[in-house]
Fold each of these.
Amino acid sequence: DTGVSQDPRHKITKRGQNVTFRCDPISEHNRLYWYRQTLGQGPEFLTYFQNEAQLEKSRLLSDRFSAERPKGSFSTLEIQRTEQGDSAMYLCASSPLRLPTYGYTFGSGTRLTVV
Amino acid sequence: DAKTTQPNSMESNEEEPVHLPCNHSTISGTDYIHWYRQLPSQGPEYVIHGLTSNVNNRMASLAIAEDRKSSTLILHRATLRDAAVYYCILLPTGNQFYFGTGTSLTVIP
C-alpha cells in the first residue's frame, strides 16, 4: 500500500469551469476526509465519509461543492463554477474506524489555481 | 471546535533541542492531544499523540501538563529536515481534526 493518493497534483482552471479531484485512501480505511488549505493557513475541514455515507459537511462546503464515495473506496470532490477564492490545496486523509497509533494519513494534496 | 494556541513561529539551531508549546485550556477529559507536521508542498504528517502521560517515539517526545491544559512537543536534536509547520490538535474521539495556524519552525544550520 502506497498511502493516500490524490490526483491530479496540480490543476489550473479558468474561472467558471468545473473541476473534479480524486482521492484513493489506504485500502480498508473506512473513514475518508477532505480538507482545504489556503496559503499560510492550516487545513480546514470540509467533509468526511464513513464507508459510502457522508456523515458530516462543513458550512465551508457551499452548494458548488459536492463530494462522493460511491463504493466506500475512492472519493471525488467536484467544484462547479469555480471562483478565484477556490484556489487552494485540497487535502484528503483516511483512517480506520478505530484511530491507530499512527493517526490519520494524509495525501499530498491537489493544488488548484483558478485564473 | 476544540481550540489550541501556538506561537506563529520559532527558530532553532541545528542539532539543538526544540520545545514547541501548545495551550489548550478548554480541553475535555476525552480529548487526545495530537501533533502533526507539514513540510512544504506536502500533506500533514503524524508526529505523536497522547492523552495524559508523556509519550516518546522515534520522532519526538510529548510532554503533557498535569492539568492537561498545555503540552510541549520536544524534538531532541533538530535537523534541517525538521523545518516544517507543526500543528497541535485536540481530537475528540471519533471526530475530525480542526487545525489552527500552527508553529512554523525554522532550523538554522
Note: The interface with chain A takes residues 32, 34, 36, 41-46, 49, 85, 87, 91, 93, 96-102 of chain B (CB under 8 Å).
Amino acid sequence: GENVEQHPSTLSVQEGDSAVIKCTYSDSASNYFPWYKQELGKGPQLIIDIRSNVGEKKDQRIAVTLNKTAKHFSLHITETQPEDSAVYFCAARPWGNNRLAFGKGNQVVVIP
Amino acid sequence: EAQVTQNPRYLITVTGKKLTVTCSQNMNHEYMSWYRQDPGLGLRQIYYSMNVEVTDKGDVPEGYKVSRKEKRNFPLILESPSPNQTSLYFCASSLQGVDNEQFFGPGTRLTVL
C-alpha cells in the first residue's frame, strides 16, 4: 500500500520567515495530494491540495509543489504568522483507491 | 451551519463493554470515513463509506464495525473494546469520494481501561 512520510517532524520558524514541509510517497500511481492543518483540540482542516496533472498551486501565503519523478510534494508557507502554528498532515490517494494515506504529521511552531 | 458532529466527545469505558460513537453530517455528503489518531502514528483510516449501504475497510479495521443506513449518519461500533483502542477518533465526510475536501468532526477522545 501507499506509504507517506513527512520531514521534519518538528519545525520552528521566526514569525515572518518561510516554512517548508516535505512529504514523500511510495506509490507512483497516486494522483491526489492534500495538506490538512490541525489546530490544538480541533479536527484537521484542508488548506490546499494538488492533483498529479499539476506541478504547483498557490493560495495566498500557501503553496504546494509536486515532483512526480522524485515522488515528493512540499508545503510552502510564506510570511509565517503565529496562527500558522499547528500540526500539518500530508496525504496521498493511490489511483483507483477510495482511501487516503496520511503522513505522521509535522508540528510547526511560529516564534513571535 | 454545515458541520460534522460526533458524540460523545469524551468517553471512558472498560474492556469488553460495547460502545457506539455517533457521527452525523448535514451537508448531504456521499463519502464518510472514520480515522483514529495516535501519537507518532498520525491519522489512520478505520472504515469508509462511499454511499448508503456501501462500506469498506480502511487500514486498521480490526475490532471495529460501521453501518451506513442513512446518508447523514455513520456510527462507529466497538463490540468489545480493548485498551489498544484508546485513541482520538475523527469522523469525516466529503461530497464525493476521498479526492474532495474532507470535513472533519471535532473528535472523540476514547479511553478503554
Note: Chain A touches chain B at residues 1, 31-32, 34, 36, 42-46, 49, 51, 89, 91, 93, 97-105 (CB under 8 Å).
Amino acid sequence: QSALTQPASVSGSPGQSITISCTGTSSDVGSYNLVSWYQQHPGKAPKLMIYEVSKRPSGVSNRFSGSKSGNTASLTISGLQAEDEADYYCCSYAGSSSLKFGGGTKLTVL
Amino acid sequence: QVQLVQSGAEVKKPGASVKVSCKASGYTFTSYGISWVRQAPGQGLEWMGWISAYNGNTNYAQKLQGRVTMTTDTSTSTAYMELRSLRSDDTAVYYCARVEPKSFHFDYWGQGTLVTVSS
C-alpha cells in the first residue's frame, strides 16, 4: 500500500495563507470523506487538526480548514503564525478498516 | 479528561519481541478503538493497525501481518501492542491513539514509547 502524496515542504510569511495537498487514489481519498490532518511539533505527539475532510475539533483555530476534490484533499492555514511551524500529515480511510498516512509536509514560517 | 499513558522506553536485540501498553482514562474505553502508529527517527507516521475495544476485532497493516498482535484488557482499560521478530528498522517511537470508530480519526494520542532495536 503506497502512502498518500504530500509536498515535502511549504513555506509562507506571517499573515499569509498556505495550502498543503494530499493526493491519493480512487480507493482511498477519492472514495471516502474520511480524511484527517495532524500537526506535529518536534518531539511531540501528533495533534488532530481536521477530521472528516473539513470538520474542526473543539479548540482548533478556525484559521485551519480542510477540503477535498476528487482524489486530492487539502489543508489550508490562513493568517500564518510562528506557532504553526510544524510537520503536517494527512490520513485517509482506505477501506476494510485500513488507514494510510501521507509522507508529511514540513511547514516553515519565514 | 481523556488520557492515554504509555509504558516506558525499551531496548531490544534483533529477533526479540516487545510489548507496549497504553492505559486509557477519562472516557468509556469500549466505545472507541485504539490504533497504533509508529515513527522511525526522522521519518513520517506509519499506521500499524487498530483494535476495537468493543469487540476485540483487529485490522493490521499488510506489511506487519504475522509479526504484530494488538489486544485490550477492558477490566483495566489498557491496550497492548506486541511486535515480534524485531529488526533494526523497527526502531521507532510507537504511539497509541484513540480511534473514533465511525470516522477513523485519531482524536487523542499517547505520549509515545521509544523502542530501540540494537545488537
Note: Chain B touches chain A at residues 35, 37, 44-47, 50, 57, 59, 61-63, 95, 97, 100, 103-107, 109-112 (CB under 8 Å).
